[in-house]
Amino acid sequence: DAKTTQPPSMDCAEGRAANLPCNHSTISGNEYVYWYRQIHSQGPQYIIHGLKNNETNEMASLIITEDRKSSTLILPHATLRDTAVYYCIVRVPSLLPGANNLFFGTGTRLTVIP
Amino acid sequence: DAGVTQSPTHLIKTRGQHVTLRCSPISGHKSVSWYQQVLGQGPQFIFQYYEKEERGRGNFPDRFSARQFPNYSSELNVNALLLGDSALYLCASSPGTGTYEQYFGPGTRLTVT
Fold first, then answer.
1. DSSP letter for each residue of B35-46
2. pLDDT tens digits for A51-83?
3. Share of chain A above pLDDT 70, in %
4. What does DSSP assign to residue A14?
5. What are phi and psi of A63, to 5 degrees?
6. Residue B31, helix vs strand vs coil
7. What 3-state DSSP class applies to B83?
8. Given A45, A46, A103, which is nearest B45 (Cβ)?
9. What's the 3-state SS for B44-72?
């Protein structure tokens, strides 16, 4: 699986868009990009995933560059509750049922400032 | 629907003791994974089970073991506890096919003294 690189920390003003970058320059053609976040003292929470097209759901948008070597998670209107550690994970789809474990790095600590 | 539940929430053990942590997955999910999270680090994969069979094992010593029951709940056992085993132990469930979308429980905070 491709290695990911994320900045250790970022700040964002409340109400503004938070743009969290992830570099995955060694990504292969069939690897998906997944984003999770972990709010303090809670378990990680799935946010969104994508292969090569931009994706949007009720939580966030995922923008993947055309060469797929990097991606950006966008929280359109950050709130204080979005303060968390955000993890970018790249994984190849597993052919074996039930073999879908995750490998977390250290992530980006996003602090939303009032 | 209830989310992933874990028990106990917290516990304190002494070095050399044994501990059993329990996890109940979301209804309908057949896969359970266990992760260890040491303070300041991301979660580290320990085990994954699907339909009672082990599907993956992380780089943890043999003191760590797990099993999954017919109702898809799971136990994580750790023998001969060391101070370094102090961590948040997270359980995650998933349908088990295709996606890496997993649903995590609140974790069990283990302190070894």
1. EEE-TTS--EEE
2. 998 999 999 999 999 999 999 999 999 999 999
3. 98
4. T
5. -110, 120
6. strand
7. helix
8. A103
9. EEEEEEECCEEEEECCCCCCEEEEECCCC
Token digits of residue A42: 């809670």
**CA diameter of chain B:** 41
The pLDDT of residue B1: 60
Task: Output the six-digit token pair for A62.
Answer: 């995922």
Structure confidence at residue B82 as a pLDDT band (50, 70, 90): very high
| Smallest Cα distance from A40 to chain B, Å | 11
Q: How far apart are CA A41 and CA A21, in angstroms?
A: 24
| Antiparallel, parallel or unpaired: β B44-50 and B31-37 | antiparallel
Pick from A42, A45, A100: CB nearest B100: A100
Q: Are A43 and B99 a contacting pair at CB < 8 A?
A: no
